[in-house]
Amino acid sequence: MVNAATAIKQEEGPELLTMPADKDIGIYPQFIHPDKPFPGWLRDRIVVFKQDGPSGGKPVYVQVNGFNIGIPREIEVDIPRPFVDALRNAVEEKWERDEVTGVEGPRKIRRYNWELKQEAVNFDELKRALEKYIDRENKRIKKEWQIANANKGKGNGVNAGTP
Q: Domain-by-domain residue ranges, the chain?
């Protein structure tokens, strides 16, 4: 029978990384592909539709934390999730009169007309890459821990107290 006291007396070891929950896979971009643009970010497939007006057919430019992308219109594209969130948050207030009450008030509408076609199109790729990263890092952590513990018992090489 295992109780709390015996559970605490387990062999010491290094603290290892663990896989995050599936819902958190896309929040570790810096660990996956640091050499690629927008590394390790979940990507969503969207289409931005043409709109009326002089710029209604031009690409939509979105900026997030200093990164810029141009999203072409009328084409399905896979873009990083933070840019989809920026599009989702791009709203305007239009003042309209309620037909029933006659009261004027604001109504929030999307700045750009777009549609989400598929969420997390690269989820499996990111999950595999994160698993590889965690495995590689855990091997490094274990090795460093073993080296540190092997050197603990060794003194400074001087035999004090021997004639």
A: 26-151
